[in-house]
Specification:
heterodimer; B: 3 domains; four-stranded antiparallel sheet; about 35% helix; globular
Chain lengths: ~280, ~325
Protein backbone atom coordinates (compact mmCIF):
# COMPACT_ATOMS: atom_id res chain seq x y z
CA UNK A 1 0.00 0.00 0.00
CA UNK A 2 2.64 2.50 1.01
CA UNK A 3 4.98 1.21 -1.66
CA UNK A 4 2.31 1.93 -4.21
CA UNK A 5 1.92 5.51 -3.06
CA UNK A 6 5.64 6.04 -3.03
CA UNK A 7 6.19 4.81 -6.56
CA UNK A 8 3.43 7.05 -7.85
CA UNK A 9 4.90 10.06 -6.11
CA UNK A 10 8.40 9.33 -7.31
CA UNK A 11 7.47 9.15 -10.96
CA UNK A 12 5.47 12.31 -10.44
CA UNK A 13 8.59 14.32 -9.65
CA UNK A 14 10.61 12.82 -12.47
CA UNK A 15 8.78 14.71 -15.17
CA UNK A 16 10.64 17.19 -17.32
CA UNK A 17 8.10 19.89 -16.57
CA UNK A 18 8.76 19.77 -12.86
CA UNK A 19 12.54 19.63 -13.09
CA UNK A 20 12.84 22.43 -15.62
CA UNK A 21 10.20 24.56 -13.96
CA UNK A 22 11.67 24.17 -10.50
CA UNK A 23 15.20 24.90 -11.79
CA UNK A 24 14.17 28.06 -13.62
CA UNK A 25 11.91 29.46 -10.93
CA UNK A 26 14.18 28.41 -8.09
CA UNK A 27 17.30 29.73 -9.82
CA UNK A 28 15.81 33.11 -10.54
CA UNK A 29 14.37 33.43 -7.06
CA UNK A 30 17.76 32.49 -5.60
CA UNK A 31 19.58 35.13 -7.68
CA UNK A 32 17.06 37.79 -6.77
CA UNK A 33 17.00 37.03 -3.07
CA UNK A 34 20.79 37.04 -2.78
CA UNK A 35 21.33 39.86 -5.29
CA UNK A 36 22.93 42.09 -2.66
CA UNK A 37 25.75 39.59 -2.10
CA UNK A 38 26.18 38.43 -5.68
CA UNK A 39 26.20 41.66 -7.63
CA UNK A 40 27.02 44.95 -6.03
CA UNK A 41 26.64 48.38 -7.48
CA UNK A 42 23.47 48.01 -9.45
CA UNK A 43 22.91 51.75 -9.13
CA UNK A 44 26.53 52.79 -9.76
CA UNK A 45 26.45 55.26 -12.64
CA UNK A 46 29.62 55.45 -14.72
CA UNK A 47 29.22 57.70 -17.74
CA UNK A 48 32.64 56.79 -19.15
CA UNK A 49 31.47 53.23 -19.82
CA UNK A 50 28.06 53.89 -21.42
CA UNK A 51 26.43 51.27 -23.62
CA UNK A 52 29.25 48.74 -23.52
CA UNK A 53 28.55 45.71 -25.65
CA UNK A 54 28.01 42.41 -23.85
CA UNK A 55 30.58 39.59 -23.82
CA UNK A 56 33.45 42.04 -24.41
CA UNK A 57 34.32 43.46 -20.99
CA UNK A 58 35.09 41.18 -18.06
CA UNK A 59 33.73 43.78 -15.61
CA UNK A 60 30.40 44.16 -17.40
CA UNK A 61 29.87 40.79 -18.98
CA UNK A 62 26.30 41.47 -20.06
CA UNK A 63 27.04 45.04 -21.10
CA UNK A 64 26.00 48.37 -19.64
CA UNK A 65 23.03 50.64 -20.08
CA UNK A 66 22.91 54.28 -21.29
CA UNK A 67 24.07 55.49 -17.88
CA UNK A 68 26.90 52.97 -17.67
CA UNK A 69 25.23 50.73 -15.09
CA UNK A 70 25.94 47.01 -15.22
CA UNK A 71 23.02 45.23 -16.91
CA UNK A 72 23.18 41.90 -15.11
CA UNK A 73 23.45 43.58 -11.70
CA UNK A 74 20.42 45.68 -12.50
CA UNK A 75 18.44 42.71 -13.85
CA UNK A 76 19.09 40.74 -10.70
CA UNK A 77 18.34 43.70 -8.43
CA UNK A 78 15.29 44.63 -10.50
CA UNK A 79 13.86 41.20 -9.93
CA UNK A 80 13.05 42.23 -6.38
CA UNK A 81 10.41 44.72 -7.38
CA UNK A 82 9.18 42.68 -10.33
CA UNK A 83 8.86 39.40 -8.50
CA UNK A 84 7.23 41.08 -5.51
CA UNK A 85 4.69 42.72 -7.77
CA UNK A 86 4.15 39.58 -9.81
CA UNK A 87 3.82 37.12 -6.95
CA UNK A 88 2.13 39.20 -4.27
CA UNK A 89 -0.45 40.77 -6.53
CA UNK A 90 -1.40 37.43 -8.07
CA UNK A 91 -1.45 35.66 -4.70
CA UNK A 92 -3.70 38.34 -3.24
CA UNK A 93 -6.00 38.33 -6.25
CA UNK A 94 -6.25 34.52 -6.24
CA UNK A 95 -7.09 34.33 -2.56
CA UNK A 96 -9.68 37.08 -2.70
CA UNK A 97 -11.13 36.01 -6.04
CA UNK A 98 -11.37 32.32 -5.21
CA UNK A 99 -13.07 32.95 -1.88
CA UNK A 100 -15.53 35.41 -3.41
CA UNK A 101 -16.22 33.07 -6.33
CA UNK A 102 -16.75 30.06 -4.08
CA UNK A 103 -19.11 31.91 -1.77
CA UNK A 104 -21.18 33.60 -4.44
CA UNK A 105 -21.40 30.46 -6.56
CA UNK A 106 -22.29 28.17 -3.69
CA UNK A 107 -24.74 30.27 -1.71
CA UNK A 108 -26.19 32.14 -4.71
CA UNK A 109 -28.92 34.60 -3.77
CA UNK A 110 -28.31 38.11 -2.51
CA UNK A 111 -24.53 38.04 -2.10
CA UNK A 112 -24.08 36.48 -5.50
CA UNK A 113 -25.92 39.38 -7.11
CA UNK A 114 -23.97 41.96 -5.14
CA UNK A 115 -20.57 40.41 -5.82
CA UNK A 116 -21.16 39.71 -9.47
CA UNK A 117 -22.68 43.10 -10.31
CA UNK A 118 -19.72 44.68 -8.56
CA UNK A 119 -17.49 42.47 -10.70
CA UNK A 120 -19.28 43.62 -13.86
CA UNK A 121 -18.74 47.25 -12.94
CA UNK A 122 -15.11 46.50 -12.24
CA UNK A 123 -14.63 44.76 -15.59
CA UNK A 124 -16.25 47.62 -17.45
CA UNK A 125 -13.68 50.06 -16.11
CA UNK A 126 -10.45 50.39 -18.14
CA UNK A 127 -7.41 49.38 -16.11
CA UNK A 128 -5.37 52.53 -16.74
CA UNK A 129 -8.29 54.77 -15.79
CA UNK A 130 -8.78 52.86 -12.57
CA UNK A 131 -5.04 53.00 -11.93
CA UNK A 132 -4.82 56.77 -12.44
CA UNK A 133 -7.82 57.39 -10.19
CA UNK A 134 -6.57 55.04 -7.52
CA UNK A 135 -2.98 56.30 -7.49
CA UNK A 136 -4.16 59.91 -7.54
CA UNK A 137 -6.15 59.27 -4.38
CA UNK A 138 -3.85 57.04 -2.35
CA UNK A 139 -0.46 57.85 -3.91
CA UNK A 140 2.12 55.67 -5.69
CA UNK A 141 4.59 53.18 -4.32
CA UNK A 142 5.13 49.44 -4.36
CA UNK A 143 2.50 48.47 -1.78
CA UNK A 144 -0.19 50.62 -3.34
CA UNK A 145 0.58 49.25 -6.77
CA UNK A 146 0.25 45.66 -5.57
CA UNK A 147 -3.01 46.61 -3.88
CA UNK A 148 -4.26 48.18 -7.11
CA UNK A 149 -3.43 45.06 -9.11
CA UNK A 150 -5.25 42.88 -6.59
CA UNK A 151 -8.32 45.09 -6.74
CA UNK A 152 -8.40 45.07 -10.50
CA UNK A 153 -7.72 41.35 -10.99
CA UNK A 154 -9.60 39.41 -8.33
CA UNK A 155 -12.66 39.68 -10.52
CA UNK A 156 -11.18 37.35 -13.14
CA UNK A 157 -10.66 34.60 -10.58
CA UNK A 158 -14.03 35.21 -8.97
CA UNK A 159 -15.85 34.80 -12.28
CA UNK A 160 -13.85 31.73 -13.25
CA UNK A 161 -14.40 30.04 -9.90
CA UNK A 162 -18.07 31.00 -9.70
CA UNK A 163 -18.69 29.46 -13.11
CA UNK A 164 -17.10 26.17 -12.06
CA UNK A 165 -18.92 26.15 -8.73
CA UNK A 166 -22.25 26.64 -10.45
CA UNK A 167 -21.68 23.55 -12.55
CA UNK A 168 -20.24 21.51 -9.66
CA UNK A 169 -22.61 22.39 -6.84
CA UNK A 170 -25.48 20.35 -8.20
CA UNK A 171 -23.34 17.34 -8.96
CA UNK A 172 -24.17 14.29 -6.92
CA UNK A 173 -20.91 14.03 -5.04
CA UNK A 174 -21.52 17.41 -3.46
CA UNK A 175 -25.01 16.30 -2.52
CA UNK A 176 -23.63 13.09 -1.10
CA UNK A 177 -21.05 15.03 0.92
CA UNK A 178 -23.95 17.03 2.30
CA UNK A 179 -25.79 13.78 3.02
CA UNK A 180 -22.99 12.51 5.27
CA UNK A 181 -23.12 15.75 7.23
CA UNK A 182 -20.12 17.69 5.91
CA UNK A 183 -20.29 21.38 6.85
CA UNK A 184 -20.61 24.09 4.21
CA UNK A 185 -17.10 25.33 4.92
CA UNK A 186 -15.61 21.89 4.29
CA UNK A 187 -17.69 21.39 1.18
CA UNK A 188 -16.39 24.67 -0.20
CA UNK A 189 -12.74 24.19 0.58
CA UNK A 190 -12.29 20.43 0.69
CA UNK A 191 -14.70 19.22 -1.98
CA UNK A 192 -15.27 22.05 -4.43
CA UNK A 193 -11.89 23.78 -4.43
CA UNK A 194 -9.75 20.79 -5.51
CA UNK A 195 -12.17 20.16 -8.36
CA UNK A 196 -11.82 23.61 -9.88
CA UNK A 197 -8.22 24.48 -9.08
CA UNK A 198 -6.87 23.49 -12.54
CA UNK A 199 -8.01 26.50 -14.57
CA UNK A 200 -7.19 28.81 -11.65
CA UNK A 201 -3.57 27.63 -11.70
CA UNK A 202 -3.29 28.26 -15.42
CA UNK A 203 -4.72 31.77 -15.08
CA UNK A 204 -2.40 32.42 -12.15
CA UNK A 205 0.78 31.61 -14.02
CA UNK A 206 -0.32 33.73 -16.98
CA UNK A 207 -1.14 36.66 -14.75
CA UNK A 208 2.25 36.71 -13.05
CA UNK A 209 3.84 37.65 -16.37
CA UNK A 210 1.09 40.08 -17.14
CA UNK A 211 1.54 41.85 -13.82
CA UNK A 212 5.29 42.16 -14.18
CA UNK A 213 4.63 44.01 -17.43
CA UNK A 214 1.79 46.06 -15.94
CA UNK A 215 4.17 47.26 -13.28
CA UNK A 216 6.37 48.70 -16.01
CA UNK A 217 3.53 50.49 -17.73
CA UNK A 218 2.46 51.99 -14.43
CA UNK A 219 6.01 53.06 -13.72
CA UNK A 220 6.22 54.48 -17.22
CA UNK A 221 3.17 56.64 -16.48
CA UNK A 222 4.78 57.72 -13.26
CA UNK A 223 2.22 55.85 -11.17
CA UNK A 224 4.43 53.03 -9.98
CA UNK A 225 7.67 52.79 -8.06
CA UNK A 226 10.43 55.38 -8.06
CA UNK A 227 11.85 55.31 -11.61
CA UNK A 228 15.39 55.08 -10.20
CA UNK A 229 14.58 51.71 -8.60
CA UNK A 230 15.46 49.00 -11.10
CA UNK A 231 12.68 46.73 -12.25
CA UNK A 232 12.37 44.42 -15.26
CA UNK A 233 9.47 46.19 -16.82
CA UNK A 234 11.09 49.56 -16.28
CA UNK A 235 14.38 48.45 -17.85
CA UNK A 236 12.50 47.01 -20.80
CA UNK A 237 10.77 50.34 -21.30
CA UNK A 238 14.03 52.31 -20.93
CA UNK A 239 15.77 50.15 -23.51
CA UNK A 240 13.18 50.78 -26.17
CA UNK A 241 14.84 54.01 -27.31
CA UNK A 242 18.15 52.22 -27.80
CA UNK A 243 16.85 49.05 -29.37
CA UNK A 244 18.45 49.72 -32.78
CA UNK A 245 22.02 50.18 -31.60
CA UNK A 246 22.05 48.62 -28.13
CA UNK A 247 19.79 45.56 -28.13
CA UNK A 248 21.19 44.23 -24.88
CA UNK A 249 19.65 46.97 -22.76
CA UNK A 250 16.15 45.57 -23.22
CA UNK A 251 16.87 41.96 -24.20
CA UNK A 252 18.30 40.82 -20.85
CA UNK A 253 15.46 42.06 -18.65
CA UNK A 254 13.10 40.65 -21.27
CA UNK A 255 14.84 37.29 -21.02
CA UNK A 256 14.51 37.43 -17.24
CA UNK A 257 10.74 37.90 -17.54
CA UNK A 258 10.53 35.16 -20.14
CA UNK A 259 12.44 32.62 -18.07
CA UNK A 260 10.48 33.39 -14.92
CA UNK A 261 7.18 33.03 -16.69
CA UNK A 262 8.31 29.90 -18.50
CA UNK A 263 9.40 28.36 -15.22
CA UNK A 264 6.14 29.26 -13.55
CA UNK A 265 4.10 27.97 -16.46
CA UNK A 266 5.92 24.66 -16.41
CA UNK A 267 5.46 24.37 -12.67
CA UNK A 268 1.81 25.31 -13.02
CA UNK A 269 1.24 22.72 -15.72
CA UNK A 270 2.92 20.09 -13.64
CA UNK A 271 0.90 21.03 -10.58
CA UNK A 272 -2.34 20.91 -12.54
CA UNK A 273 -1.48 17.51 -13.98
CA UNK A 274 -0.50 16.02 -10.67
CA UNK A 275 -3.64 17.35 -9.01
CA UNK A 276 -5.80 15.74 -11.66
CA UNK A 277 -6.07 12.06 -10.73
CA UNK A 278 -7.63 10.92 -13.98
CA UNK A 279 -4.56 12.10 -15.89
CA UNK A 280 -6.75 13.53 -18.62
CA UNK A 281 -4.50 16.51 -19.19
CA UNK A 282 -1.15 14.80 -18.89
CA UNK A 283 -1.17 13.37 -22.41
CA UNK B 1 -42.23 -9.39 12.28
CA UNK B 2 -39.91 -11.57 14.29
CA UNK B 3 -38.22 -8.49 15.75
CA UNK B 4 -39.56 -7.35 19.09
CA UNK B 5 -38.83 -3.66 18.56
CA UNK B 6 -41.86 -3.10 16.41
CA UNK B 7 -42.26 0.59 17.25
CA UNK B 8 -41.33 2.61 14.19
CA UNK B 9 -37.92 4.28 14.08
CA UNK B 10 -39.00 6.85 11.53
CA UNK B 11 -42.52 8.15 11.03
CA UNK B 12 -43.67 10.57 8.38
CA UNK B 13 -46.91 12.29 9.38
CA UNK B 14 -49.06 14.45 7.08
CA UNK B 15 -45.99 15.58 5.19
CA UNK B 16 -46.58 18.15 2.48
CA UNK B 17 -43.82 19.66 0.41
CA UNK B 18 -44.10 22.70 -1.81
CA UNK B 19 -41.76 24.25 -4.31
CA UNK B 20 -42.97 27.80 -4.65
CA UNK B 21 -46.72 27.41 -5.07
CA UNK B 22 -46.75 23.95 -6.58
CA UNK B 23 -47.35 21.17 -4.14
CA UNK B 24 -45.29 18.09 -4.98
CA UNK B 25 -46.14 15.98 -1.94
CA UNK B 26 -49.55 16.04 -0.33
CA UNK B 27 -50.32 14.60 3.12
CA UNK B 28 -47.92 11.71 3.05
CA UNK B 29 -47.96 9.20 5.92
CA UNK B 30 -45.78 6.17 6.46
CA UNK B 31 -43.45 4.66 9.02
CA UNK B 32 -40.45 2.33 9.02
CA UNK B 33 -39.50 -0.19 11.64
CA UNK B 34 -35.92 -1.18 12.48
CA UNK B 35 -34.76 -4.19 10.52
CA UNK B 36 -37.48 -3.87 7.91
CA UNK B 37 -37.46 -2.51 4.40
CA UNK B 38 -40.02 -0.08 3.13
CA UNK B 39 -40.14 0.36 -0.62
CA UNK B 40 -41.51 3.57 -2.07
CA UNK B 41 -42.55 3.00 -5.66
CA UNK B 42 -43.95 5.29 -8.30
CA UNK B 43 -43.20 6.80 -11.66
CA UNK B 44 -40.75 9.64 -12.31
CA UNK B 45 -41.99 12.84 -10.76
CA UNK B 46 -44.26 11.16 -8.25
CA UNK B 47 -42.31 12.66 -5.36
CA UNK B 48 -40.21 9.69 -4.27
CA UNK B 49 -36.88 11.47 -4.30
CA UNK B 50 -38.31 14.64 -2.79
CA UNK B 51 -39.60 12.49 0.09
CA UNK B 52 -36.16 11.09 0.73
CA UNK B 53 -34.49 14.48 0.43
CA UNK B 54 -37.06 15.91 2.83
CA UNK B 55 -36.22 13.28 5.41
CA UNK B 56 -32.57 14.29 5.07
CA UNK B 57 -33.65 17.95 4.96
CA UNK B 58 -31.59 18.37 1.80
CA UNK B 59 -34.57 19.53 -0.26
CA UNK B 60 -34.56 23.00 1.24
CA UNK B 61 -31.41 24.03 -0.56
CA UNK B 62 -33.30 23.57 -3.81
CA UNK B 63 -36.22 25.67 -2.60
CA UNK B 64 -38.61 23.29 -0.86
CA UNK B 65 -40.88 24.39 1.97
CA UNK B 66 -43.00 22.35 4.36
CA UNK B 67 -46.48 23.79 4.94
CA UNK B 68 -47.53 20.87 7.15
CA UNK B 69 -46.35 17.61 8.61
CA UNK B 70 -43.83 16.06 10.94
CA UNK B 71 -41.00 13.60 10.40
CA UNK B 72 -40.44 11.82 13.69
CA UNK B 73 -37.17 10.03 14.28
CA UNK B 74 -36.48 8.07 17.43
CA UNK B 75 -32.78 8.38 18.02
CA UNK B 76 -30.58 8.48 21.08
CA UNK B 77 -32.26 11.57 22.51
CA UNK B 78 -35.74 10.09 22.21
CA UNK B 79 -38.20 11.10 19.54
CA UNK B 80 -37.39 14.27 17.61
CA UNK B 81 -39.13 16.03 14.76
CA UNK B 82 -36.60 16.33 11.95
CA UNK B 83 -38.54 19.15 10.31
CA UNK B 84 -38.11 21.40 13.34
CA UNK B 85 -34.38 20.79 13.67
CA UNK B 86 -31.86 23.44 12.62
CA UNK B 87 -29.57 22.64 9.70
CA UNK B 88 -26.76 22.62 12.24
CA UNK B 89 -28.45 19.85 14.23
CA UNK B 90 -29.35 17.99 11.04
CA UNK B 91 -25.72 17.92 10.05
CA UNK B 92 -24.89 15.75 13.04
CA UNK B 93 -27.78 13.41 12.21
CA UNK B 94 -27.00 13.09 8.51
CA UNK B 95 -24.52 10.36 7.83
CA UNK B 96 -24.56 9.25 11.46
CA UNK B 97 -28.17 8.23 12.15
CA UNK B 98 -29.69 8.57 8.71
CA UNK B 99 -27.59 7.82 5.67
CA UNK B 100 -28.35 7.92 2.02
CA UNK B 101 -27.24 6.14 -1.14
CA UNK B 102 -27.68 8.00 -4.39
CA UNK B 103 -28.88 6.87 -7.75
CA UNK B 104 -25.84 7.64 -9.88
CA UNK B 105 -22.77 5.77 -8.68
CA UNK B 106 -20.75 7.23 -11.56
CA UNK B 107 -21.05 10.81 -10.32
CA UNK B 108 -21.66 10.40 -6.59
CA UNK B 109 -17.99 10.12 -5.71
CA UNK B 110 -15.70 13.12 -5.71
CA UNK B 111 -13.27 12.60 -8.61
CA UNK B 112 -10.24 14.16 -6.91
CA UNK B 113 -10.18 12.08 -3.73
CA UNK B 114 -9.20 8.47 -3.18
CA UNK B 115 -11.81 5.97 -2.04
CA UNK B 116 -10.12 5.74 1.36
CA UNK B 117 -10.31 9.50 1.87
CA UNK B 118 -13.97 9.58 1.00
CA UNK B 119 -15.06 6.76 3.28
CA UNK B 120 -12.98 7.98 6.18
CA UNK B 121 -14.37 11.49 5.91
CA UNK B 122 -17.66 10.52 7.46
CA UNK B 123 -15.85 8.50 10.14
CA UNK B 124 -13.57 11.33 11.18
CA UNK B 125 -16.51 13.71 11.06
CA UNK B 126 -18.95 11.84 13.29
CA UNK B 127 -16.82 9.42 15.27
CA UNK B 128 -13.80 11.73 15.53
CA UNK B 129 -11.44 8.94 14.51
CA UNK B 130 -7.84 9.70 13.62
CA UNK B 131 -6.76 9.44 10.01
CA UNK B 132 -5.16 6.01 10.33
CA UNK B 133 -7.96 4.58 12.47
CA UNK B 134 -10.48 5.86 9.95
CA UNK B 135 -8.56 4.25 7.11
CA UNK B 136 -8.48 0.92 8.97
CA UNK B 137 -12.21 1.14 9.55
CA UNK B 138 -12.71 2.04 5.88
CA UNK B 139 -10.90 -1.10 4.90
CA UNK B 140 -13.22 -3.18 7.08
CA UNK B 141 -16.19 -1.46 5.47
CA UNK B 142 -14.88 -2.21 2.00
CA UNK B 143 -14.53 -5.85 2.97
CA UNK B 144 -18.07 -5.74 4.36
CA UNK B 145 -19.45 -4.69 0.98
CA UNK B 146 -17.35 -7.47 -0.58
CA UNK B 147 -14.96 -5.46 -2.66
CA UNK B 148 -11.91 -7.52 -3.65
CA UNK B 149 -8.47 -6.34 -2.43
CA UNK B 150 -9.83 -3.68 -0.13
CA UNK B 151 -6.30 -2.56 0.74
CA UNK B 152 -5.51 -1.48 -2.79
CA UNK B 153 -8.93 0.02 -3.15
CA UNK B 154 -8.25 2.66 -0.49
CA UNK B 155 -5.69 4.33 -2.73
CA UNK B 156 -7.69 4.18 -5.92
CA UNK B 157 -9.59 7.04 -7.48
CA UNK B 158 -13.26 6.77 -8.48
CA UNK B 159 -12.54 6.80 -12.21
CA UNK B 160 -10.58 3.57 -11.83
CA UNK B 161 -13.64 1.65 -10.59
CA UNK B 162 -16.61 0.22 -12.42
CA UNK B 163 -20.17 1.28 -11.70
CA UNK B 164 -20.92 -1.69 -9.47
CA UNK B 165 -17.72 -1.15 -7.49
CA UNK B 166 -18.52 2.51 -7.04
CA UNK B 167 -22.00 1.75 -5.82
CA UNK B 168 -20.50 -0.63 -3.28
CA UNK B 169 -18.15 2.15 -2.19
CA UNK B 170 -21.19 4.38 -1.82
CA UNK B 171 -22.84 1.76 0.36
CA UNK B 172 -19.68 1.47 2.44
CA UNK B 173 -19.69 5.27 2.85
CA UNK B 174 -23.33 5.28 3.88
CA UNK B 175 -22.82 2.48 6.38
CA UNK B 176 -19.63 3.93 7.84
CA UNK B 177 -21.27 5.17 11.04
CA UNK B 178 -23.77 2.29 11.33
CA UNK B 179 -26.87 4.42 10.64
CA UNK B 180 -30.26 3.47 12.04
CA UNK B 181 -32.05 4.40 8.84
CA UNK B 182 -30.66 3.95 5.35
CA UNK B 183 -32.35 5.71 2.47
CA UNK B 184 -31.51 4.11 -0.85
CA UNK B 185 -32.64 6.34 -3.70
CA UNK B 186 -32.83 4.03 -6.72
CA UNK B 187 -29.44 2.51 -5.92
CA UNK B 188 -29.62 -0.10 -8.64
CA UNK B 189 -31.23 1.82 -11.49
CA UNK B 190 -27.95 2.73 -13.19
CA UNK B 191 -26.48 -0.77 -12.90
CA UNK B 192 -26.84 -3.82 -15.06
CA UNK B 193 -28.94 -6.73 -13.84
CA UNK B 194 -26.23 -9.05 -12.48
CA UNK B 195 -24.60 -6.23 -10.51
CA UNK B 196 -28.09 -5.20 -9.38
CA UNK B 197 -28.63 -8.61 -7.86
CA UNK B 198 -25.27 -8.46 -6.05
CA UNK B 199 -25.98 -5.01 -4.63
CA UNK B 200 -29.41 -6.11 -3.43
CA UNK B 201 -27.97 -9.16 -1.68
CA UNK B 202 -25.29 -7.08 -0.02
CA UNK B 203 -27.88 -4.56 1.16
CA UNK B 204 -30.09 -7.33 2.46
CA UNK B 205 -27.29 -9.02 4.39
CA UNK B 206 -26.01 -5.80 5.88
CA UNK B 207 -29.48 -4.80 6.93
CA UNK B 208 -29.79 -8.01 8.94
CA UNK B 209 -26.32 -7.55 10.38
CA UNK B 210 -26.85 -3.96 11.51
CA UNK B 211 -30.62 -4.15 12.11
CA UNK B 212 -31.20 -1.04 10.02
CA UNK B 213 -34.45 0.30 8.73
CA UNK B 214 -34.18 0.72 4.97
CA UNK B 215 -36.26 3.04 2.83
CA UNK B 216 -35.84 1.77 -0.69
CA UNK B 217 -36.93 4.09 -3.46
CA UNK B 218 -37.40 2.51 -6.85
CA UNK B 219 -39.69 2.19 -9.83
CA UNK B 220 -38.75 -1.40 -10.53
CA UNK B 221 -41.44 -3.76 -9.26
CA UNK B 222 -39.07 -6.70 -9.68
CA UNK B 223 -36.68 -5.17 -7.18
CA UNK B 224 -39.57 -4.43 -4.82
CA UNK B 225 -40.65 -8.06 -4.84
CA UNK B 226 -37.12 -9.11 -4.03
CA UNK B 227 -36.20 -6.75 -1.22
CA UNK B 228 -39.20 -5.07 0.41
CA UNK B 229 -41.28 -5.98 3.46
CA UNK B 230 -43.76 -3.15 3.02
CA UNK B 231 -44.63 -1.04 0.01
CA UNK B 232 -45.89 2.51 -0.36
CA UNK B 233 -47.16 3.36 -3.82
CA UNK B 234 -46.94 7.03 -4.71
CA UNK B 235 -48.60 8.79 -7.56
CA UNK B 236 -48.58 12.53 -8.24
CA UNK B 237 -47.28 13.29 -4.77
CA UNK B 238 -49.91 11.28 -2.95
CA UNK B 239 -49.80 7.90 -1.34
CA UNK B 240 -52.31 5.77 -3.21
CA UNK B 241 -51.73 2.43 -1.59
CA UNK B 242 -49.75 0.86 1.22
CA UNK B 243 -49.37 -2.65 2.47
CA UNK B 244 -47.14 -5.68 3.02
CA UNK B 245 -45.44 -6.67 -0.19
CA UNK B 246 -47.20 -10.01 -0.64
CA UNK B 247 -50.69 -8.61 -0.22
CA UNK B 248 -49.98 -5.74 -2.52
CA UNK B 249 -48.67 -7.96 -5.28
CA UNK B 250 -51.46 -10.51 -4.89
CA UNK B 251 -54.30 -8.10 -4.54
CA UNK B 252 -53.60 -4.53 -5.73
CA UNK B 253 -56.45 -2.14 -4.92
CA UNK B 254 -55.71 1.14 -6.63
CA UNK B 255 -55.80 1.25 -10.45
CA UNK B 256 -52.36 2.89 -10.50
CA UNK B 257 -50.84 -0.02 -8.60
CA UNK B 258 -52.47 -2.37 -11.05
CA UNK B 259 -51.03 -0.37 -13.93
CA UNK B 260 -47.56 -0.50 -12.38
CA UNK B 261 -47.76 -4.24 -11.92
CA UNK B 262 -49.10 -4.73 -15.42
CA UNK B 263 -46.08 -2.93 -16.84
CA UNK B 264 -43.72 -5.65 -15.58
CA UNK B 265 -43.03 -8.21 -18.31
CA UNK B 266 -43.47 -11.81 -17.26
CA UNK B 267 -40.81 -14.35 -18.03
CA UNK B 268 -42.08 -16.92 -20.53
CA UNK B 269 -45.14 -15.01 -21.61
CA UNK B 270 -43.72 -14.65 -25.10
CA UNK B 271 -42.90 -18.34 -25.54
CA UNK B 272 -43.61 -19.54 -29.06
CA UNK B 273 -43.70 -16.07 -30.59
CA UNK B 274 -41.28 -15.76 -33.52
CA UNK B 275 -40.99 -11.94 -33.42
CA UNK B 276 -40.92 -9.27 -30.73
CA UNK B 277 -44.26 -7.73 -29.95
CA UNK B 278 -45.40 -4.25 -29.09
CA UNK B 279 -47.94 -4.04 -26.29
CA UNK B 280 -50.29 -1.20 -25.43
CA UNK B 281 -49.27 0.80 -22.36
CA UNK B 282 -51.56 1.47 -19.46
CA UNK B 283 -51.73 5.13 -18.51
CA UNK B 284 -53.70 6.88 -15.80
CA UNK B 285 -56.69 8.83 -17.00
CA UNK B 286 -58.28 10.69 -14.11
CA UNK B 287 -58.87 8.05 -11.47
CA UNK B 288 -59.08 5.14 -13.89
CA UNK B 289 -56.73 3.65 -16.44
CA UNK B 290 -56.69 3.72 -20.18
CA UNK B 291 -54.79 1.74 -22.80
CA UNK B 292 -52.68 3.61 -25.33
CA UNK B 293 -51.45 2.00 -28.54
CA UNK B 294 -52.31 -1.42 -29.84
CA UNK B 295 -50.77 -4.85 -29.78
CA UNK B 296 -48.77 -5.57 -32.91
CA UNK B 297 -46.01 -7.87 -33.99
CA UNK B 298 -42.70 -6.25 -34.84
CA UNK B 299 -41.73 -8.12 -38.01
CA UNK B 300 -40.16 -5.40 -40.11
CA UNK B 301 -36.61 -6.76 -40.33
CA UNK B 302 -35.62 -8.09 -43.76
CA UNK B 303 -33.18 -10.91 -43.19
CA UNK B 304 -32.77 -11.75 -46.88
CA UNK B 305 -31.21 -8.40 -47.83
CA UNK B 306 -27.56 -7.54 -47.21
CA UNK B 307 -26.92 -5.97 -43.80
CA UNK B 308 -26.73 -2.18 -43.42
CA UNK B 309 -23.68 -2.34 -41.19
CA UNK B 310 -21.30 -5.19 -40.57
CA UNK B 311 -18.04 -5.42 -38.65
CA UNK B 312 -15.31 -7.79 -39.78
CA UNK B 313 -11.92 -8.58 -38.21
CA UNK B 314 -11.87 -5.40 -36.14
CA UNK B 315 -8.83 -5.01 -33.86
CA UNK B 316 -8.28 -1.98 -31.67
CA UNK B 317 -5.05 -1.57 -29.74
CA UNK B 318 -4.20 0.91 -27.03
CA UNK B 319 -0.74 1.99 -26.00
CA UNK B 320 -0.27 0.45 -22.58
CA UNK B 321 3.33 1.46 -21.99
CA UNK B 322 2.52 3.62 -19.02
CA UNK B 323 0.55 0.95 -17.23
CA UNK B 324 3.34 -1.55 -17.81
CA UNK B 325 5.92 0.80 -16.34
CA UNK B 326 3.74 1.57 -13.36
CA UNK B 327 3.17 -2.08 -12.61
CA UNK B 328 6.83 -2.91 -12.85
CA UNK B 329 7.70 0.02 -10.61
CA UNK B 330 5.19 -1.06 -8.01
CA UNK B 331 6.50 -4.61 -8.12
CA UNK B 332 10.02 -3.32 -7.79
CA UNK B 333 9.13 -1.20 -4.78
CA UNK B 334 7.69 -4.16 -2.96
Amino acid sequence: MSANRFSVNLSNYKSLEFILGALLTGGICFLVVFSDFLFQGADKINLSSRLLEPFTHPDHFFGTDPLGRDIIARVVAGGKVSLQVGFLSVAGAVVLGVIMGLISGYYRGFWDVIVMRFADVQLAMPFILLAITFIAIVGGGLANMIFLLIISQWVQYARLVRGSVLSLRDREFIQSAEAIGVSHFNILFRHLLPNLIGPVIVLTTLNVANNILLESSLTFLGLGVDPLTPSWGGMLADGRTYIQNAWWVSVFPGLAILLTVLGLNLLGDWLRDSLDPTGRTSR
Amino acid sequence: MTDISSSPILTVENLSVEFGHSRVIDNLNFSVIAGRTLAIVGESGSGKSVTSQSIMRLAESTGASYPSGRILFSGEQGEIDLLSQSQEAMRSIRGKDIAMIFQEPMTSLNPVFTIGDQISESLSLHKKLTKSAALDESMKLLKMVRLPDAEDMLNRYPHQLSGGMRQRVMIAMALACRPKVLIADEPTTALDVTIQAQILTILNDLQKELNMAVIFITHDMGVVAEIADDVVVMWKGKKVEQGPVKELFANPQHPYTKALLAAVPKLGSMAGEPFPKRFPITVMDGEGTRLVGEEKTQATACYDKSPLLSVRDLVTRFDSKKAFLDVSLIEYMR
